[in-house]
C-alpha cells in the first residue's frame, strides 16, 4: 500500500480563480496559462476543468499544446515561446496553435508557408525575447501586406515588475508597447500577466494571460493569495508517521541545527525535498494538523521532515499534515524558504500523486 502523501487539487477553486481573473480583466478576455504541467497541478486535469469557461489556453512549448489536444480539447493554444523548428509550424497549422514569434530566425521559417495564425513578441523592457519597439515597423512590413489581414493576430509583451506596486517600470513598458503597436489598431494586444490584474488602472487590452493566480498563489509582492481573494487549488498533504518527545538539549535531524530548549513533543512527516518540498524551509516554517498550525523543526530531509506538535497536542500517528493549502498558504511557505509560490507548486515531484476533487 503506498504512503498517503498526496497533492489534492480543488478544481472548483481553480474555476473560482479563473472567474476572478476574468472579472478583473475589464474588457479583455482571459486566456488560461497552463504551462509547466498546469503549474504542477496536471495540465490535462487543469485544462479539462477550465474547458467550459476558457476560450484560449496558453503554454510555453508545443509539447504542452499537444497534451491539451490529446485530452480532446479544441480551443486555440498560444505558444508563448514560439516554435523551435520549422516543422513545428505544420503542427501549428493543423492543430490550431498560435505561436508567439520573437526573432528573425522564426520569421524566416514563415516564408516557406503555409502559416499558422501567430503573434509577434515586443520587447518592451523585459529583455528576454522579442523585437524592440523601433524594429516593429520593419518587421511587420517584411511579413508582407497580407499578414495584417490574415495570419498575424496581434502583439504580445511581458511585464518585468508588475508584482511591485512601487515600481514605475510597468507604466513605462505599457507606454512603449502602446506606442509601438499604435499603427495597427485592428490587431489584438496582450500584456496582462497575473500581477497586472491587480494593478489599479492597468490597461489589459484584448487578451490577458492569468497564470499563477489561477492556482491560488499570489502574484504580488507582500500579499498572499487569500488576501487577494484567491482560493488555494493545491493542498499538499503527508502523513504523520512517528511521534516522540525530544528532551531538552537533544537535537533533531541533519546538522543538529535545532536543539530543544525544553522537552518537546515532535512528529515526523513522510515528505521531503525528494517530493519537491523546499529543503531551505527551516525551523519555524508553518504547517498544519487538524486545522491547527504547527512549525517545522530543523532541516528538511529527502523523504521526511520534523514538526513541533506543541500547537496540536491531540495529533496522532497517521494524521494528515498540511504542508500548504487552506490553513497555510503556499506563499507563506515560499517566503520562509526564500522563494516564490510558483517554484513550490511547479516543483512537486512525480512521486506525489495528484488527486482531483
From TrEMBL:
<dbReference type="Pfam" id="PF00842">
    <property type="entry name" value="Ala_racemase_C"/>
</dbReference>
<feature type="modified residue" description="N6-(pyridoxal phosphate)lysine">
    <location>
        <position position="35"/>
    </location>
</feature>
<dbReference type="InterPro" id="IPR000821">
    <property type="entry name" value="Ala_racemase"/>
</dbReference>
<dbReference type="InterPro" id="IPR020622">
    <property type="entry name" value="Ala_racemase_pyridoxalP-BS"/>
</dbReference>
<dbReference type="InterPro" id="IPR009006">
    <property type="entry name" value="Ala_racemase/Decarboxylase_C"/>
</dbReference>
<protein>
    <recommendedName>
        <fullName>Alanine racemase</fullName>
        <ecNumber>5.1.1.1</ecNumber>
    </recommendedName>
</protein>
<feature type="active site" description="Proton acceptor; specific for D-alanine">
    <location>
        <position position="35"/>
    </location>
</feature>
<keyword id="KW-0413">Isomerase</keyword>
<dbReference type="InterPro" id="IPR001608">
    <property type="entry name" value="Ala_racemase_N"/>
</dbReference>
<comment type="pathway">
    <text>Amino-acid biosynthesis; D-alanine biosynthesis; D-alanine from L-alanine: step 1/1.</text>
</comment>
<dbReference type="Pfam" id="PF01168">
    <property type="entry name" value="Ala_racemase_N"/>
</dbReference>
<feature type="active site" description="Proton acceptor; specific for L-alanine">
    <location>
        <position position="254"/>
    </location>
</feature>
<dbReference type="InterPro" id="IPR011079">
    <property type="entry name" value="Ala_racemase_C"/>
</dbReference>
<keyword id="KW-0663">Pyridoxal phosphate</keyword>
<comment type="similarity">
    <text>Belongs to the alanine racemase family.</text>
</comment>
<comment type="function">
    <text>Catalyzes the interconversion of L-alanine and D-alanine. May also act on other amino acids.</text>
</comment>
<dbReference type="InterPro" id="IPR029066">
    <property type="entry name" value="PLP-binding_barrel"/>
</dbReference>
<dbReference type="GO" id="GO:0008784">
    <property type="term" value="F:alanine racemase activity"/>
</dbReference>
<feature type="binding site">
    <location>
        <position position="128"/>
    </location>
    <ligand>
        <name>substrate</name>
    </ligand>
</feature>
<feature type="binding site">
    <location>
        <position position="302"/>
    </location>
    <ligand>
        <name>substrate</name>
    </ligand>
</feature>
<feature type="domain" description="Alanine racemase C-terminal">
    <location>
        <begin position="233"/>
        <end position="357"/>
    </location>
</feature>
Amino acid at each position: 500500500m503506498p504512503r498517503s502523501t498526496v497533492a489534492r487539487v480543488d478544481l472548483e477553486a481553480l474555476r473560482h480563480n479563473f472567474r476572478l481573473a476574468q472579472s478583473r480583466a475589464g474588457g479583455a478576455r482571459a486566456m488560461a496559462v497552463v504551462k509547466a504541467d498546469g503549474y504542477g497541478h496536471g495540465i490535462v486535469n487543469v485544462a479539462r476543468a477550465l474547458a467550459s469557461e476558457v476560450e484560449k489556453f496558453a503554454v510555453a512549448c508545443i509539447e504542452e499544446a499537444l497534451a491539451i489536444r490529446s485530452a480532446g480539447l479544441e480551443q486555440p493554444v498560444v505558444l508563448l515561446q514560439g516554435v523551435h523548428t520549422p516543422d513545428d509550424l505544420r503542427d501549428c497549422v493543423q492543430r490550431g496553435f498560435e505561436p508567439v514569434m520573437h526573432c528573425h530566425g522564426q520569421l524566416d521559417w514563415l516564408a516557406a508557408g503555409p502559416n499558422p495564425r501567430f503573434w509577434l513578441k515586443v520587447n518592451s523592457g523585459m529583455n528576454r525575447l522579442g523585437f524592440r519597439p523601433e524594429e516593429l515597423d520593419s518587421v511587420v512590413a517584411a511579413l508582407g501586406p497580407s499578414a495584417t489581414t490574415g495570419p498575424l493576430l496581434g502583439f504580445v509583451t511581458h511585464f518585468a515588475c508588475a508584482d511591485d506596486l512601487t515600481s514605475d517600470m510597468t507604466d513605462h513598458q505599457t507606454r512603449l508597447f502602446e506606442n509601438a503597436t499604435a499603427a495597427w489598431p485592428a490587431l489584438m494586444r496582450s500584456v496582462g500577466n497575473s500581477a497586472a490584474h491587480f494593478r489599479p488602472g492597468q490597461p489589459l487590452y484584448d487578451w490577458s494571460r492569468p497564470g499563477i493566480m489561477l492556482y491560488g498563489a499570489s502574484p504580488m509582492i507582500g500579499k498572499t493569495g487569500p488576501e487577494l481573494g484567491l482560493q488555494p487549488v493545491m493542498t499538499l498533504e503527508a502523513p504523520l508517521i512517528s511521534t516522540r518527545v525530544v528532551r531538552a538539549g537533544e537535537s533533531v535531524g541533519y546538522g543538529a541545527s535545532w536543539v530543544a530548549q525544553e522537552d518537546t513533543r515532535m512528529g515526523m512527516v513522510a515528505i521531503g525535498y525528494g517530493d519537491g518540498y523546499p529543503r531551505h524551509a527551516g525551523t519555524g516554517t508553518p504547517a498544519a494538523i487538524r486545522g491547527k498550525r504547527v512549525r517545522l523543526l530543523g532541516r528538511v530531509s529527502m523523504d521526511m521532515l520534523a514538526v513541533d506538535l506543541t500547537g496540536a497536542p491531540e495529533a496522532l500517528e497517521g494524521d494528515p499534515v498540511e504542508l500548504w493549502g487552506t490553513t497555510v498558504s503556499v506563499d507563506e511557505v515560499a517566503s520562509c524558504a526564500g522563494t516564490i509560490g510558483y517554484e513550490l507548486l511547479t516543483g512537486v515531484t512525480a512521486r506525489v500523486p495528484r488527486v482531483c476533487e
